[in-house]
Amino acid sequence: MQLKKYTDYGLRVLIYLAAAEPDERATINDLSSVFSVSKNHLNKVVHHLGKLGLIKTWRGKGGGFSLAVDARHTRLDTVIRQLEGDEDWIDCLNPTCKIYSVCDLKGIIHAGKEQFYSYLAKYTIASLVERPEEIKVRWHIDTQELNDES
């Protein structure tokens, strides 16, 4: 199983915002520079995170976005389900599988998926940023290296 790039980018945005100072706003340019991800992809992710109520957004000059939730209480399983969509991992009915009625694969995969999410439920966004000052320094170094190469 592999998470979608969309989910990966969404988690990166949340980590970045959780590591930021409470009154600090990030921009698409900031994130694009730090993560080397296209602005177009990040715009879609940020828009979705805003619709989910996970981030606050401001438009125009001085705009940007910040975390809208308490990172200590925002569980990874919930965020990943929201970003991934919670569809079945196996679709035995499209097209209909000839052995569907006698096969246990769907039930086994479903149980594994629930164990996966149960494990993630032990962690929050805050779990990912226990050393925010080190995260910010690393991002600053990477961003500076990118700017120096230009």
TrEMBL record:
SUPFAM superfamilies: Winged helix' DNA-binding domain. Coiled coil: none annotated. Transmembrane segments: none annotated. It comes from the Bacteria. Keywords: DNA-binding. The keyword DNA-binding applies. PANTHER family: HTH-TYPE TRANSCRIPTIONAL REPRESSOR NSRR, WINGED HELIX-TURN-HELIX TRANSCRIPTIONAL REGULATOR, RRF2 FAMILY. This is Predicted transcriptional regulator, YjeB/RRF2 family protein. It comes from Idiomarina baltica OS145. The lineage of its organism: Bacteria, Pseudomonadati, Pseudomonadota, Gammaproteobacteria, Alteromonadales.
